Amino acid sequence: MRNWFRKASVVQEQGTLPALIQYYKKSGDFVHFHNPQTPQPFWISYFGSLIDVEILHRDILPYLQQTALTSLEAVRAALPFEDVLITSEQKKIEDALLRGSVLIQLDETASICALVRAEMKKSREVTIPEEEYSVVGPKEAFVESITTNLNLIRTRLPITELQVKEFTIGTLSKTKVAVLFIDGITNEENVNTVCQRLENLQFHQILDSSFISQLIEDNTISLFPQLIDTERPDRVAGALGEGSVVIVVDGSSHVLIGPISIMELFNAFEDYFVNWQIASAFRLIRVFAVSFSIMVTPIYVAVLTYHYQLIPKDLMVTLVSSRRNIPLPPFLEAVILELTIELLREAGARLPSKVGQTIGIVGGIVIGTAAVDAGLTSNVLLIIVALAALASFTTPVYRMGNTIRLLRFPFLLLAELWGLLGIAIAFIFLMNHLLRLTSLGRPYLEPIYPPRWKDLKDSFIRLPFSKQSRRPHFFQAKDQIRFPAKKVNEVKDIDE
């Protein structure tokens, strides 16, 4: 495949425009048409699968057939388009044809032509978010069209300082990628880091923003996401206002945001639409739920295997009675249940939505009840594993949820080997990895490490907006001031 692509490109680069047209004729959707009945004969060429036929028959052919075309400049003047390109550069001609342009020639053997954009734009309508749904707040989500996505962002930030840098990445896909930032707020070092990594990418196909995320992250082997992918335009607008860099990929309904810290993975954008007390409580619940989801099953295995002396007598009676007829050790019992939960979750995600919900609910009840009745697992562990699975769903970022699902297994293995000491060792390795991890060169554990107490106002808890007059130090923004702090607290009398 690679050799064929290289040979085809060499043929196209070394040939003339007629040779390029002859090469494209091998494709069944390429049209090369000659109209000799007009005052001046012309030839048009295009890919039928890429252009809008209505534009061709309404805005191009009637004007060509009714006008005496003495030159390509006359073609440009006759057509009701502002961006008619006249060129002989084969690279531009090739790119334009493959992007949905119509090629017009007055002489079939000439190497110069006129190119008219008539691409067919097919994209779904803007709908509500599916993964980041919120009860309050905007109900718009990104789509697969980069033009529509940029419109959704610019509508929320109608300022001249919002800058867009465009790239074309992928030797086969030729995917459009846009980097967005606010000039005067975003740190130039972050912008240059993203742009340099995109320019240095050597990859054949970019089919989604997740490809970009995997290719430009600081540590590509880490389980933890170092860029946030979101489908919410309001979240992107808020991140740009903080000083983040945003990456929009054509063909993807998710937009990347960076740099990020680990605390942003537990923050839902809906937190800004409710009272700060409620938002802070929800954030603390999410942090507790993630810790519970990772640690509770390994602690159960460690305590029952090595440290049963720590269990109170009343609770020990319950555990002994629940495990009286269980032939498996706690570790195998926990592994079987964890794998069962993962199978149900994966099956529910891959099946159609209605069938998947039924499989998840009915399958969980049936399999759980049957496992307890068959004596393969205890009802206490079944409750613990179910609660751990529910707790892992509280993370608002999908990729972080996947990370939590996988982290439980190394903790579980070390708990079986060395008990609570094994859990402590796993925790040390985890913290060592997080301390070394960065996002676009910024510390991943900020504001915990390095400690930046002022950034705590929007991390574990969210303080009132009146207390957040400065942007987080984490982004190293050029302009640290969001709004004058004194004016927020001024209260005018009714008669002023």
Automatic annotation (TrEMBL):
The gene is gerIA. The chain crosses the membrane at residues 284-306, 380-399, 411-435. It is a multi-pass membrane protein. It comes from Neobacillus kokaensis. The keyword Membrane applies. It comes from the Bacteria. Keywords: Membrane, Transmembrane, Transmembrane helix. It is found in: Cell membrane; Membrane. Belongs to the GerABKA family. This is Spore germination protein.
